[in-house]
Amino acid sequence: MKYLWRLLPLSFFLLLAGCGQQNLSALDPQGPVAEMQFSLIRLSLYIMIFVIVVVFAIYVFVLIRFRERPGDTHIPKQVHGNKVLEVVWTAIPIFLLLILAVPNVMETFTLADTEPTEDSITVNVTAHAFWWEFEYPDYDIVAGQDMYIPTNTRVIINLESSDVIHSFWVPALAGKQDNVPGNVNDMWIEAPKEGVYLGKCTELCGPSHWLMDFKVIAVETDVFETWAANMAVPAEEKEQSESEVLVEGRTLYEQSCLQCHSISGQGGFGPDLTNFGERTVVAGYLKYEDENIKDWIRDPQSLKPGNGMPAFPDFTEDELDALTEYLKSLKVLEE
Amino acid sequence: MSHAKAQSKSVLWDWLTTVDHKKVGILYLAAGAFFFALGGLEAILMRIQLMFPEFTFLPAQTFNELLTMHGTTMIFLAAMPLLFGLMNYIVPLQIGARDVAFPFLNALGFWLFLFGGILLNVSWFAGGAPDAGWTAYVPLSSESPGTGIDYYVLGLQISGAGTLIGGINFLVTIINMRAPGMSMMRMPLFTWSTFVASMLILFAFPALTIGLLLLMLERIFGATYFAVDFGGNVIIWQHLFWIFGHPEVYILVLPAFGIFSEIISTFSKKRLFGYSAMVFATLIIGFLGFMVWAHHMFTVGMGPVANSIFAVATMAIAVPTGIKIFNWLLTLWGGRIQFTTANLFALGFIPSFVMGGVTGVMLATSAANYQFHDTYFVVAHFHYVIIGGVVLGLFAGAFYWWPRIFGYKLNETLGKIFFWMFLFGFHLTFFVQHFLGLIGMPRRVASFLGGQGLDEMNLISTIGAFFMGVAFILFVVNIFVSMKNKETTGDPWDGRTLEWTIPSPTPEYNFAQTPLVRDVDALWYEKYEGDGKMKAAEPLGDIHMPNGSFLPFIISLGLFIASFGFIYHLWALAIAGMVVVFGAMFVRSVKEDHGYHIPKEDILNAKGGK
Amino acid sequence: MEHQHTVQQTLPPNPEKATLEGRNKFLGFWFFLGGETVLFASLFGTYLGLKGSTHTGPGPDELFSLPLVFIMTMILLTSSLTSVFAIINMKKGNYRGLLLWLSVTVILGLAFLGFEIYEFYEYVHHGLGFTTSAFGSSFYTLVGTHGAHVAFGIAWITTLLLRYRKSGLTLTNAPKFYVAVLYWHFIDVVWVFIFSVVYLMGIGG
């Protein structure tokens, strides 16, 4: 019986976790921050379920016991109140709330402790309508959309915004903080396990708010170091393929895309494409397929209304093929 | 103007110029019901869009406009006016008054609200509704293209002014106009909660006024409070908005609490348990309502100290709320509970609201709030509080006071079907949304991607919304089919308070003689300790009434016209509108209204004819 | 209920609170001022949050001139005093005195407004426009809202003076005069806060 009591809430959460996706659910935490928050959620839920059970029990009893029976016309006693009861139901909630308030205050401070440690890394996250930019100041690199982090490392995140307010949320790893223009907010995350964790913008930021997804990709430390080192190789030192298609694609890229999209530190203010070949989605949400890449280039507004990229309807099918091939060849981890 | 002359005017003119608190109340109810239906339709459209992943029923921009207008409409144009309607009609009757303190301003408050609401909705036909959420966070709102946000700013400014006027009117009415013997601590709970809610209106709405003023100046005159490039700060808006916005929640829910207190007491045939504790809890909730606004902003980077303080302060609100819940339960305890439709809504409220309340405490847990914030968990929470609290309260109040206000009883069978269907639909819609939020669905998303485990629960939620929609149609049907059930006793529920002491339909002057109040539940006291009739506190005499006036309509129309001038930068039009406004105010100030008298004989005739 | 509106020879000692209408007006106006307090508190909060955000424009210490603001403060304080004289006269039943002292109040109010317009004109010439910086916007909004209240108060009292120039004191107009003076005091109190928070703190710190 005793064990059953303990198992009941646990199975409840397992059931819930089953509904969600492991890399997206706050109920299936994959790192210490989300775990801390999940334990608070559980604690608060247990207290609240206790409250609900007590209230519902009295409620159901009262409704059944004191319902009007047919023919009953008695006048109930007009009770004024009861001081002892009032004190009791004032004191007990206060006590219950203290049980919750104390760990909450402690954890609020733990979560706000974003002092870098010796082996922590820092990522500056800038939110744009509707994409994410990840700058690694220690490595002097910038990445778009996919945030690579080493496993078992404390990652300090500084949040900024270039336009309206956005909010950075990776439910499986940590609760959110807002990207506020004019302010820098910070938080920290840690991922013990390798994996791809889904992130979303949670502050209404325009018509494509719902498509402002990103990924946090946790890899082993050595893989991360390789990734960072390759990301940092300047464009001019990179080996370029001699393949005809890729050369054409690269020429087109330099003519039409480079103004905005940087590769290896060269180029403008849009999402960095240095490792575009390793993305698993296009524009943050579309399947990684040639057709989607081409559709996006032709008319990005129809796929993500309100984003900053102009349409390129004039490319021929061959040009688009070449450009797509070139984009897909942009990799830093595997050859 | 004589009484006879006033009656010869057309019905339409009568309603346009009325300053009778009962007619103003009915106007509020009618306009509020219209906007409630509109906001509901907007909700249904959104739920259809969210029925399936990546559904393309609505474009994302339209969805954002719908979510903004749904929230704004439901809070400002539906919930508040509907409550105001009940307050207007019932509160003067409950305190034994012939009128409100400021009948003219009361009418002005209504017309301001109505014209503000219309202005807001004109945006749909003028290039797009506001699209930045009902919270209109800057810089999304300050930089939003088009005129949608301008309509939002001016529409809310006008209707907000009306609300503020209404609030002051209730405060003074309750303090100055009570019948002899009706001390503050004998007032019915609905009147008490109206008093506290009006206090909150008075001290909360000016913050919104300033927020909207700043946003207007920023958008129309190029001010730079929120422009980061000029040293502006975008968080100021959030503070101003929530200093208003959090008390607003209590402005809505406290009157609903008052309604439940009346109904639960009436239909369990018992005096309210712990009356003074209930009053005290209402006051505490009202006070704490001002201390917790920043719990809407845990993730904007206020730092752990501020977050902790606001978290604990917010949790504290659970204590007085709990006191209320237990006092209601103990009112029922030992009673003879009648399951009328009105009482069903009140009884349905208790578990529904408790569930909304406990998720409120969970949200107050700042560290965990980082996970909840701006997800469907929050959406579920505030719908549990607002539908489970306010909307159920409004329906409860509607069924309870319908015979008083409209002179006929709503059909109980249809009412009960409506109740069960609505309650079922409500829980079906919003219960699953808690989990949607926890497993990764942000709020205010125009759609969601398939394959992320969100599909089934969204479909369930939409089905629930349809149930609520159909249920509401049943309610409207009920209004029409029940019209023949005339109610002539004036006291259909074996009531306890003063509004049930007068004949039905309610006479224009409410009380032929001001009653003398001898206890809480004044009528009940007379029924069981006296002869069942109120003692009169004054001899029968002529009754002085204020004249109707068209000026409230004109003033509101002037502001409505001026708003178009501001929105489209047509300064001549803006000035013309303001001239109308100030001109009408000037006329009001210079032309004294002496009112008219209803002669004693007419009152005697009415009494005799009963 | 009182509904005696004709001019009486002997008015009660507090004519402004003698009727229910008068008491309602009196209480309602106090509540209104409570709301106004929150209104100005919100503007003060906004100003304090933005007063350092001068962007490329001038800041408080470069602009504010204490002598000018001191004169303005004195004018407004004096106008409050003259309005008190007006009410004392009203309670004594000296209607001409009431009109006279209120006229002086209006004139002082106009003088204050004149100085304020001059002040704003000077600041614009020193490079602080309404849109120059967040400081500029919040400064003009706070002080300008107060100025608008002063202007409204002047218009209100003037209307009363013209409307009732010949009627003598009645139970109808006594509450109107009283409430208008209450409003005038409120404006004055707000200015004292503006003087300390905006000007003194602006120059001092």
Please count the beta strands of chain A (DSSP E, at least 2 residues each).
12
**Major sheet attributes of chain A:** 5 strands, mixed
Number of helix segments of chain A? 8
The succession of helices and strands of chain A, N to C, reads HHHEEEEEEEEEEHHEEHHH
Transmembrane segments (chain A): 45-66, 87-106
Function (chain A): Subunits I and II form the functional core of the enzyme complex. Electrons originating in cytochrome c are transferred via heme a and Cu(A) to the binuclear center formed by heme a3 and Cu(B).
Pfam family, one (chain A): COX2_TM
Cofactor (chain A): Cu cation
Summarize the structure in words:
The complex is a heterotrimer of chains A (335), B (610) and C (205). Chain A is of the alpha+beta class. Chain A has 3 domains: 2-69 and 79-112, Helix Hairpins, CATH 1.10.287; 121-232, Immunoglobulin-like; 235-328, Cupredoxins -  blue copper proteins (Immunoglobulin-like), CATH 2.60.40. In chain A, 39% of the residues lie in helices and 19% in strands. In chain A, the strands form 3 sheets. Chain A has a 5-stranded mixed β-sheet with strand order 3-2-1-5-8. A 5-stranded mixed β-sheet of chain A has the order 4-10-9-6-7. In chain A, strands 11-12 form a two-stranded antiparallel ribbon. In chain A, helix 6 (290-298) packs across helix 8 (317-328). Chain A is elongated, with a radius of gyration of 27 Å. The model of chain A has no long low-confidence stretch (mean pLDDT 91). Chain B is globular, with a radius of gyration of 24 Å. Chain B is built from 20 helices and 4 strands. With 610 residues, chain B is an all-alpha fold. Helix content of chain B is 66%, strand content 2%. The model of chain B is unreliable at 1-6 (pLDDT under 50). In chain B, the strands form 2 sheets. In chain B, strands 1-2 form a two-stranded antiparallel ribbon. In chain B, strands 3-4 form a two-stranded antiparallel ribbon. Chain B folds into 2 domains: 3-549 and 593-609, Cytochrome C Oxidase, Chain A; 550-592. Chain B has helices at 3-8, 11-17, 21-49, 60-94, 103-122, 148-176, 189-221, 235-267, 275-288, 304-316, 318-332, 341-364, 366-372, 376-406, 412-438, 455-481, 522-529, 551-567, 571-590, 600-609, and strands at 515-516, 535-536, 543-545, 596-598. In chain B, helix 18 (551-567) packs antiparallel against helix 19. The N and C termini of chain C lie far apart (56 Å). The longest helix of chain C has 32 residues, at 173-204. In chain C, helix 4 packs antiparallel against helix 5 and helix 5 packs antiparallel against helix 6. Chain C contains 6 helices and no strands. The radius of gyration of chain C is 20 Å and the shape is elongated. Chain C has 205 residues and is an all-alpha fold. Chains in contact: A-B, B-C. At the A-B interface, helix 2, helix 3, strand 7 and strand 9 of A face helix 4, helix 9, helix 10, helix 11 and helix 12 of B.
